[in-house]
Design goal:
Shape: globular
Largest sheet: 8 strands, mixed
Structural class: alpha/beta
Strand content: 5-15%
Radius of gyration: 23 Å
Distance between the termini: 62 Å
Strand order of the largest sheet: 3-2-1-4-7-8-9-10
Helix content: 25-40%
Amino acid sequence: MDICVVGLGKLGLPLAVQFAAKGHRVTGADCAPGVVAAVNEGRPPFPREAELDERLKRVVAEGRLTATTDTTRAVDRAEAVVLVVPLVTAADGTPDFTLLDSATDAVAAGLRRGTLVAYETTLPVGTTRSRWAHRLEQGSGLVAGRDFGLVFSPERVRTGRVFADLRRYPKLVGGIDARSTRQGVEFYRAVLDFDPRPDLERENGVWALGSAEAAEFAKLAETTYRDVNIALVNQYARYADRCGVDLAEVIEACNSQPYSHLHRPGIAVGGHCIPVYPRLYLWNDPAATVVRAAREANETVPAYAAGLLAGALGGSLAGVGVRVLGAAYRGGVKETAYSGVFPLVEALRAAGAQPWVSDPLYSAAELAALGLPPYRGEPAVAAVLQADHPEYRSLEPADLPGVRVFLDGRRCTDPARWGGVRHLVLGGGGQGR
């Protein structure tokens, strides 16, 4: 097949490489000339995506993947078009469709009869049918479902391990009609491989859902579940600190039977997905009080962490230098989308502290450009681990000279290494009081 992938970001580019590796001819379209140039040279435009460097070089060298800024021209010769363009959301979850509208208009201008159009960007329920079908029809003069197939198929992968996740998780596909769904299922079967999953009740592979709305709902539901679960254990962590119980013991005990799937508490919920998609769900369903309460509960954890530090230092952070370890929203990823570092720095400042940020993936100049105060060796008596980078797992007091209190916000360090320094974790049994 000739395939066009629109959006060569951290999810779109691995998808394009995967399709090309299956023997198809792929054109990647992106509005950033620098990204297009890097792809055409076989260079990943972002770091630390497992397998991408080698795979990208191979498919570019073999002529199976090229990139362009001309989306319409790329679509004109494509039998399938996959859109992975970001959906921007406001703080209250209101979606801003500007980028996707522009990409959709460019696709419509080159759309031909018989082409499949698949959206993988997470969307509010109903968007594929009510917005994209109409916009594609308007720009192409064709009729969705009759002249071209239209499906929603959510991405279900994490940056850093995209290729492994593509193999591991079923690919969900739902169309605006039965014909579109069949076309979508056939397409994804031709471009993806799947690992055996004996734990699933159905064979791993491409799963057809009854409609585009069902596929949209599934993505919002699975990510919102995680946010609600994390909010629950974050509240358990506060109670564990009050009653002197180590929550890790409790979670291990609970999860020993198959009906409990408690996650771990953490200093923040960051990234493009978990903090955002519950708000998109609430945009569809504003009466969902559980979802709203969970989102609000998770947003208060950075301030709670600052309070733990203050308690361990005698009740005040006024004038205290605090080193924040990790600007990224999670370990091993150079990405700060909705990272907990921002509310954590704000909470520390509000408590009177002087925070400084360091991260093994970011230079001081990059941190400053993000509005974060870079650590340059200033004296700090407290430190907070915000992102669980692999480099932090062997931390010990010698790595943080002068620090008297260390709060591991991700519970990834070994307390046994921290003799002479007060070592805190969320839900660790009240050490922070």
